[in-house]
Amino acid sequence: MKITVIGGGSWGLGLSKVLTDNHHDVLVYDIDAKIVEKINTLHICIQLNEDIPESIRATTDLTEAVNHAHVLLFVVPTKVLRVALADVITHLDEPKLFVNAAKGIEPDTFKRVSEIFTEMVPPQYFEGYVALSGPSHAEEVIRGMTTLITSASENEAHATYVQNLLHNRDYFRVYSSTDLIGAELGGALKNIFALAAGLLRGQGLGDNATAALVCRGLVEMGKIYEHFGATQDSLMGLTGVGDLIVTCTSPHSRNFQAGYKIGKGKDLHETLDSMTMVVEGIRTCEAAHRLSHEHGLDTPIIDAIYDVVFNRVEPQKAYDKLLSRDQKPE
């Protein structure tokens, strides 16, 4: 099959490697000519300095990219998604199956990525939408290390179609799901708790505190899942607890890294400027905090991270406030 990947970052190239290993014809589009050149000439992912298959081709020509394939796989930060999607739309002349592998929620609207696609893509060009989510660091995927993710769509046939494109027996196992809401919420919300986990480590706390954070974070995620009608299966699956664990326990996570630097006393803007990749947890925290307060959801960890990031509360003060909450049954 021919597949176009929109976004030549580390995760875009990680998925491109999987697709190429599965004998698909992959064309990567990126606006950055330097990234495209390195893919085509040196066959590397410059963000990770890792080799990628020589058969992966790249282009800065959006018309060529859109016309290359029926399946368009978007791997761009949610911060620039509307801009990227608006550019792609101008080149559409037939229905496409849209797949998204980035994780985030729009702060002002609390719209999931699928809702942005549905809103922006003209119906005559919108065949369907599939989300890819789960515990999946790009570094490990590019190296061919064992990874399990979920292909989710409200249309079961679309979910299994993309599942079949990506699944292989060597290192990349893909499950399918029709709980699109749960898959998208899990992929976005876990980034908030990854920030929190980094903060804890930056403050010198250990495994016990991290385990407690994962457990109580899962409770807060569950409240938001329930509010939107997502299933417990998704919460307890790869796109929920699976992704939560990997981002809260691994230094590969950019959200963990950002939290760690803030916990060590670095300024938020200084921290974000020093990161080579987008920290989605910042935007998602803003959205989740607003949602929780508008709908009366009790999310003390999300509130604490919001205070640290947006109200410049000292991490130790936010931590003390959490621990001083009234005792209650678990």
Q: Your description of this structure?
A:
The protein contains 16 helices and ten strands. The protein folds into two domains: 2-178, NAD(P)-binding Rossmann-like Domain (Rossmann fold, 3-Layer(aba) Sandwich); 181-323, N-(1-d-carboxylethyl)-l-norvaline Dehydrogenase, domain 2. It is an alpha/beta fold and 330 residues long.
CATH superfamily of the largest domain: NAD(P)-binding Rossmann-like Domain
Number of domains: 2
Shape: globular
Question: Total strand count, please?
Answer: 10
| Number of H- or I-type helical stretches | 16
Task: Give structural attributes.
alpha/beta; Rossmann fold; N-(1-d-carboxylethyl)-l-norvaline Dehydrogenase, domain 2; 2 domains; 8-stranded mixed beta sheet; 10 strands
Describe the structure concisely:
It contains 16 helices and 10 strands. The protein has helices spanning 10-21, 33-42, 62-68, 81-89, 113-120, 138-142, 156-166, 180-202, 207-228, 232-235, 238-249, 254-263, 268-274, 280-295, 300-310, 315-323; strands spanning 2-6, 25-29, 44-45, 50-51, 57-59, 71-74, 96-100, 126-133, 147-152, 172-177.
Q: What is the element layout, followed by pairings?
A:
Blueprint: E1 2-6, H1 10-21, E2 25-29, H2 33-42, E3 44-45, E4 50-51, E5 57-59, H3 62-68, E6 71-74, H4 81-89, E7 96-100, H5 113-120, E8 126-133, H6 138-142, E9 147-152, H7 156-166, E10 172-177, H8 180-202, H9 207-228, H10 232-235, H11 238-249, H12 254-263, H13 268-274, H14 280-295, H15 300-310, H16 315-323
Helix pairs in contact: 4-5, 8-9, 8-11, 8-12, 8-14, 9-11, 14-15, 15-16
